[in-house]
């Protein structure tokens, strides 16, 4: 598959031909189930779009039954930015319902398979984006990351996934899961393409009040030769499988060989991250999903009266995982439990943020696992709790609002990709990309 950088040099005729071929290739591979539909608009470089990002006049459903039939009335800001830069949305890709999940199994459209081994999950919630790029069925894709949903599927499918600093990319037109954590980001074949796509979609937007109003672009000044100080987290690694530990050791050697300085740091036990995240995310999700009442958007089940219409629409329209989160979110926000759960989670969130800030006083980047294992087999994560625990390495980054990039380091004995992430201080995407380019070159991963 050609890279984004290469695709941006193609003529209109070459792109038209490329898109016809791409469409034929996607249609010849239906079992992967990465695309929900192909819906090419505009004549730019085709980009796959996660089904929670609005493209005007397209269906957009966040992978849910409740939004069947809903047509986006306007473009998300990122879509306008893509179009202005000569890129075009090309098809909606599959995701966990409302971006809740780590395997893309909770989608209304059925599960997506891992392109490297169809017995394994592609990761989630941006599993369709990762599988499309990993299978050579997309040049690049947009995903969203609330607690790891860009970085973890990227790691499972052997591609690059980047979560920008909270506020760097407008959330206007993104279906909200947990508004204080959600960020849209690039999923690409290599680090340079991620920087190119990041530059295109980032920047100020008056339509998003949490937008950080910073416009610095990184691509023209990418510098993989910079010598950086990079923290490792040896204690953190104890929860990881041998594959992850091997990749971690390999990455450290590669970074040292590139002339970077490695220092060891420690963080709070990551089990606190899980609690703080799942309380915060479900509380916000409960509030965000209250709008799906059968009156304003998508599907409606007519009930005996208005209240019954609400109940039946939501009972039929939401899947099990979404219902579980709505229940959890209402519980942690309910009077009597609010102080014990929600307020405590916000305090923990501050501690996590402070911990990162303290580490970044001494270092430029942190090297961390993305997931405790390579992509599990379907059914291997037996309970919702096991799935939540598998997010242990990604969610603190969202709680602290930091930028991070996941990239493939090696393959394990079974040929599955093993990814790791670099994490940078808030708004320091420049250093994140510089260090990632250096690591990518040093490990020489071949898809
Ligand atoms: N797996 C996490 C969750 O289910 C993260 C999802 C995401 O980043 N959208 O909440």
Secondary-structure topology with pairs:
Layout: H1 4-7, H2 12-27, E1 35-40, E2 45-50, H3 77-84, E3 87-93, H4 127-134, E4 140-145, H5 151-157, E5 160-163, E6 183-188, H6 191-201, E7 229-232, H7 242-257, E8 261-264, H8 271-288, H9 306-317, H10 320-333, H11 338-362, E9 365-369, H12 384-389, H13 395-400, E10 404-411, E11 417-424, H14 429-443
Parallel strand pairs: 2-3, 2-4, 7-8, 7-9
Antiparallel strand pairs: 1-3, 4-6, 5-6, 5-10, 9-11, 10-11
Helix pairs in contact: 4-5, 7-14, 8-10, 8-11
This protein binds glutamine.
Outline type: globular
The major pleated sheet works out as: 11 strands, mixed
Rounded mean pLDDT score: 96
Identify every distinct bound molecule in the structure, by name, code or SMILES.
glutamine
Q: How many strands in all? A: 11
Unreliable segments of 5+ consecutive residues: none
- The helix-strand sequence is HHEEHEHEHEEHEHEHHHHEHHEEH
Can you tell me the CATH class? Alpha Beta
Strand content: 5-15%
How does the helix and strand content classify structurally? alpha/beta
Q: Alpha-carbon distance between the termini?
A: 11 Å
CATH topology: Amidase signature (AS) enzymes
Number of domains: 1
Gyration radius from CA atoms, angstroms: 21 Å
Strand order of the largest sheet: 1-3-2-4-6-5-10-11-9-7-8
Helix share, percent: 25-40%
Q: Indicate the CATH architecture.
A: Alpha-Beta Complex
Count of DSSP-assigned helices = 14
């Amino acid at each position: 598959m050609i890279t984004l950088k290469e695709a941006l040099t193609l003529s209109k005729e070459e792109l038209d031909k490329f898109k016809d071929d791409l469409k034929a290739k996607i249609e010849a591979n239906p079992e992967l189930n990465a695309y929900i539909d192909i819906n090419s608009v505009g004549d730019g470089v085709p980009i796959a779009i996660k089904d929670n990002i609005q493209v005007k006049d397209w269906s957009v459903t966040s992978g849910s039954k409740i939004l069947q039939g809903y047509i986006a009335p306007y473009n998300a800001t990122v879509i306008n930015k893509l179009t202005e830069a000569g890129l075009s949305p090309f098809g909606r890709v599959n995701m966990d319902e409302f971006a809740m999940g780590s395997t893309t199994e909770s989608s209304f459209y059925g599960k997506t398979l891992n392109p490297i081994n169809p017995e394994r999950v592609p990761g989630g919630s941006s599993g369709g984006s990762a599988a499309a790029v990993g299978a050579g069925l997309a040049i690049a894709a947009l995903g969203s990351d609330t607690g790891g949903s860009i970085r973890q599927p990227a790691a499972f499918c052997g591609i690059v996934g980047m979560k920008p600093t909270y506020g760097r990319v407008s959330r206007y037109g993104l279906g909200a899961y947990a508004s204080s954590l959600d960020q849209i980001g690039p999923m690409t074949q290599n680090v340079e393409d991620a920087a190119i796509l990041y530059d295109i979609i980032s920047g100020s937007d008056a339509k998003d009040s949490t937008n950080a109003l910073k416009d610095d672009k990184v691509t023209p000044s990418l510098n993989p030769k910079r010598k950086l100080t990079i923290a490792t987290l040896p204690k953190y690694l104890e929860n990881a499988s041998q594959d992850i530990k091997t990749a971690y050791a390999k990455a450290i050697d590669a970074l040292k060989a590139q002339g970077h300085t490695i220092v060891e740091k420690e963080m709070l036990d990551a089990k606190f991250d899980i609690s703080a995240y799942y309380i915060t995310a479900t509380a916000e999700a409960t509030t965000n999903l209250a709008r799906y009442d059968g009156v304003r958007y998508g599907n409606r089940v007519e009930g005996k009266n208005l209240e019954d219409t609400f109940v039946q629409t939501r009972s039929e329209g939401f899947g099990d995982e979404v219902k579980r989160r709505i229940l959890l979110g209402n519980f942690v926000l309910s009077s009597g439990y609010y102080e014990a759960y929600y307020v405590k989670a916000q305090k923990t969130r501050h501690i996590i943020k402070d911990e990162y800030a303290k580490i970044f006083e001494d270092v430029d980047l942190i090297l961390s696992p993305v997931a405790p294992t390579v992509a599990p087999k379907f059914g291997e994560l037996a309970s919702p709790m096991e799935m939540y625990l598998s997010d242990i390495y990604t969610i603190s980054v969202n709680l602290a609002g930091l930028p991070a990039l996941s990239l493939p380091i090696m393959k394990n004995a079974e040929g599955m990709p093993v990814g790791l992430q670099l994490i940078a201080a808030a708004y320091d995407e420049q250093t994140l990309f510089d260090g990632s380019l250096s690591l990518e070159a040093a490990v020489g991963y071949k898809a």
